[in-house]
Specification:
heterodimer; A: mainly alpha; two-stranded antiparallel ribbon; about 5% strand; B: alpha/beta; Amidase signature (AS) enzymes; 15 helices; globular
């Protein structure tokens, strides 16, 4: 599978990474090369094989639905690039 | 008296217990070594003042008769572990100024066991790399150099700073994390011991996530015994990580009996690919001969899907990474680059400026293989092949107790080599990735030098949660190899 420039532009947008127009061709080549490499998996017969999402041979544990932490708003906002009155601040999203 | 920085962790522990020296003296020796060899760039953020304070507190605890398993031991912390109040960057510009308000479980366990953190060690950005050349904070230099030239060599990756620091004696031991080989390959390149435990042995809570179904923390040390001691202090069930295993932590040091009589050592025939360096092949045969001399029985095994492991890994790991790294949005923490086009523009510009080339490449691959129309063909297919790779190991372990392989296909290479083509770089992990996909414990032990004077490592792979056998056999390999060579740079 080879990726063209438009596909890379679209994937970059899906990933929310700004890729300059002049870099698209080069990136398309690199990504196609990697995809070509992984395509050898097509040779493997996997009929009847369940996809393996985790090696942990266990069911996820449950715990009581209780509040066990929190109340550290100031500590969390200390890393925010921009905040006001206890909220994260972002550019205007509603006109 | 031996130089303090030459003691192993076990020796330092005993010396501290016998009051031959204090934690402050030991820590001071390392702080001085770190300053003398800052040119290796092994640390992103050294924390000498904090270290000396912790050492003082450790001495005070010991004076009261309280001593943990790592009491007063100065360690390096891979800068992928969040440490409360100490910036934690993942070697990325996007986290350049991130100061976590919490402590990762593994680093907290080590601290509670008395360990003294000397600083945060360098790594490949978000642990993505095999040469420590993708860090925003610069390359790490391998303290080893070739006999034939004086080119700066890579320490391997992603835990390259930890490996270089342990080898150059800029810490007694260090934490690493391993997703596809990131503990074992740099350990081999730097001539130290690196142990990736079974997936679930150590909590992942507070470790900056790369690929959550693969990531695992482990010790990087100068001896097998040191790895056993440190793993015991790092491991344990943690309610904050639902994938951490609810099983007791054994006394790993007790496993080092030296007795491997009758143990069956698997030798996978698929691990002898064309182009495997003759030196590596010879070292592997030598390792096997040592184990045989000690009474173990070599058994040829087959892991038929080995050849598909790298391709599987380079779908699964980027897919998980693209999802995990979606959190870096320039809003709640980390770098923010404002744009004129509203919130979307802010995301796109922040992530373009904040992530380096290799990280972007992996996010894009991951986004592509998870996107509508390709999910089944790539991601689900890779997960199915992963199941087959795990099954290969399960079957092999019906007849053998442990598996011996090379750790990496070559010794350390120079900065700039293997960088033209991402696939060439990925091939470094050809022997370590299958173990990661299967979630099994793997340890690299230094066993010799190449003709050009570089360390070579062998990998031992064990059954799930059987780090004890891996350590026991590793101990035998270590004493047979008697690897005492020292790198040309670092503390002499």
């Amino acid at each position: 599978m080879s990726l063209d420039k438009d596909t890379v532009r679209n994937v970059a947008y899906l990933a929310r990474i700004d890729v300059p127009e002049e870099d698209l061709d080069g990136l398309a080549g690199e990504l196609s090369h990697i995809l070509h490499f992984v395509e050898r998996l097509k040779e493997v017969n996997t009929s009847g094989v369940e996809p393996m999402a985790s090696v942990a041979d266990m069911t996820l544990p449950e715990r009581a639905d209780e509040v066990t932490g929190g109340g550290i708003r100031a500590k969390i906002l200390a890393n925010a690039p921009d905040s006001r009155e206890g909220f994260f601040l972002v550019p205007k999203v509603v006109e | 008296m031996t130089k303090l920085t030459d003691l192993s962790l076990a020796e330092a522990r005993d010396g501290l217990a016998q009051k031959k020296f204090s934690a402050v003296e030991l820590t001071s020796a390392y702080v001085a070594a770190m300053a003398r060899h800052a040119d290796l760039n092994a640390y992103i953020t050294p924390t000498p003042e904090l270290a000396l304070e912790c050492a003082k507190a450790s001495d005070a605890r010991r004076a009261k008769g309280v001593a943990g398993a790592m009491e007063g031991i100065p360690i390096g912390m891979k800068d992928l572990f969040c440490t409360e109040g100490v910036r934690s960057t993942a070697a990325s510009r996007i986290l350049e100024n991130f100061v976590p308000p919490y402590e990762s479980t593994v680093s907290a366990n080590l601290r509670d066991a008395g360990a003294v953190m000397l600083g945060k060690t360098n790594l490949d950005e978000f642990a993505m790399g095999s040469a420590n050349v993708t860090s925003y904070f610069g390359n790490v230099a391998n303290p080893w150099t070739r006999n034939s030239d004086d080119k700066t060599l890579v320490p391997g990756g992603s835990s390259g700073g930890s490996a270089a620091a342990v080898a150059a004696r800029l810490c007694l031991a260090a934490t690493g994390t391993d997703t596809g080989g990131s503990i074992r390959q740099p350990a081999a390149f730097c001539g130290i011991v690196g142990l990736k435990p079974t997936y679930g042995r150590c909590s992942r809570w507070g470790i900056v996530a790369f690929a959550s179904s693969l990531d695992q923390a482990g010790p990087m040390t100068r001896t097998v015994r040191d790895a056993a001691i440190m793993l015991g202090a790092m491991a344990g069930n943690d309610p904050k990580d639902s994938t951490s295993a609810p099983i007791p932590v054994p006394d790993f040091e007790k496993a080092l009996t030296g007795n491997i009589k009758g143990l069956k050592v698997g030798v996978p025939k698929e691990y002898r690919p064309q182009g495997l360096s003759a030196e590596i092949a010879k070292t592997w045969d030598q390792g096997l001969a040592w184990l045989k001399d000690a009474g173990a029985e070599p058994v040829e095994i087959s892991l038929p899907h080995t050849d598909y492991a790298l391709a599987t890994y380079y779908i699964v790991a980027p897919a998980e990474a693209s999802s995990n790294l979606a959190r870096y949005d320039g809003v709640r923490y980390g770098l923010r680059v404002d744009g004129e086009g509203g919130l979307d523009d802010l995301y796109c510009r922040t992530r373009a400026a904040g992530f380096g080339k290799e990280v972007q490449r992996r996010i894009l691959i991951g986004t592509y293989v998870l996107s509508a129309g390709y999910y089944d063909a790539y991601y689900l297919k890779a997960q199915r092949v992963r199941a087959l790779i795990a099954e290969d190991f399960r079957k092999a372990f019906e007849t053998v107790d442990v598996i011996l392989t090379p750790t990496a296909p070559t010794p350390a290479f120079a900065v700039g080599e293997n960088e033209d083509d991402p696939i060439t770089m990925y091939l470094n992990d050809v022997f370590t990735v299958p173990t990661s996909l299967a979630g099994l414990p793997g340890m690299s032990v230094p066993v010799g030098l190449s003709a050009d004077g570089l360390p070579l490592g062998l990998q031992l792979i064990g059954k799930p949660f059987d780090e004890e056998t891996v350590l026991k056999v590793g101990g035998v390999l270590e004493s047979s190899a008697a690897f005492t060579a020292r790198p040309s740079r670092g503390e002499g």
